Amino acid sequence: MSTGTPLTLRVTERLDDRGAIARIRLEPVQGTLVPFTAGAHLDLHLVENTLDLWRQYSLCSDPAETGFYEIGVLKDPVSRGGSEAVHRLAVVGAELSVEGPRNHFPLAEDAAQSVLIGGGIGITPMIAMAKRLHALGRDFVLHYCTRSESVTAFLDTLRAAPFADRVVFHFDDGAADQKLDLARDLPAPAADTHLYVCGPQGFMDWVLGAAETAGHASGQVHREYFSADVDLTGEGFEVEARASGITVKVGPKDTIAKALMAAGVKLEVKCEEGVCGTCVTDVLEGEIDHRDQFLTDDEREDGDLICACCSRAKGARLVLDI
Ligand code: FES
């Protein structure tokens, strides 16, 4: 279901929804769409003048839909330019280069109970999940938290959805008893209950912390970060790219990926924030200072994978299998 081959999709419909969220329908210029599973995202290649970025956007269309993909993109003036570029470039008729779909946030489709929690633009993968769970006839609830009803994208769509009775809206400026109350709204931990969360980092930290405190097993709590604040500070260290026969110094505030690529090592990066997994590289020697949001706790403990776009060394040297 995933492809690393770029494909060209045409914007065939665009709705500028509440909350500065553009809902963009994409259809293939040629051929048919690659099927996707709920939780998957597309990598969009955004090229405009000196801008050349890859950004990831979750699919919110129905996985059963074979004619088009839909994504929702928040115009975020404090982002690094990707979302504003999408808002400028994705006009009806425009062609966009994409890769994917890829799914790092898959749904446990056989769970007896699923609780989906989306904050702001983090609602997008949850909509695809809700559609899939509804099609499967599973028990689920979708909690959607926003600042205010007036900035709630997908509001009308969700209120008209065949699973509308499973959607609970929570508005920050609304009455106290309708706000998300994790003590009340998280289910009791159970072997066949799965939680999913996506949204701004502070929101996710809050939900994930509450889920852990409540005793939900980490393997049943699923998360997807859209972006993350990355701490690049730290002492300098050395990195050997063994297969390439190149060793570089990584200075304070520099990154392994940038240092290696500047020296001619081939390494692919996309988000540069430790959330997409594109830059994950095998580590042969050395201790890793993980700064990403992509690797699981088990992968961190194994200590043989690193997100080279943001993570660092705890010691003086790392050896990578690249
Ligand atoms: S480029 Fe996305 S995790 Fe490193």
From TrEMBL:
Keywords: 2Fe-2S, Flavoprotein, Iron, Iron-sulfur, Metal-binding, Oxidoreductase
Protein's name according to its UniProt entry: PDR/VanB family oxidoreductase
Annotated InterPro entries: 2Fe-2S_ferredoxin-like_sf, 2Fe-2S_ferredoxin-type, 2Fe2S_fd_BS, Beta-grasp_dom_sf, FAD-bd_FR_type, FNR_nucleotide-bd, MRET, OxRdtase_FAD/NAD-bd
CDD domains named in the record: fer2, PDR_like
Domain 2Fe-2S ferredoxin-type: 228-322
Gene3D superfamilies named among the record's database cross-references: 3.10.20.30, Nucleotide-binding domain of ferredoxin-NADP reductase (FNR) module (3.40.50.80), Translation factors (2.40.30.10)
Domain FAD-binding FR-type: 4-108
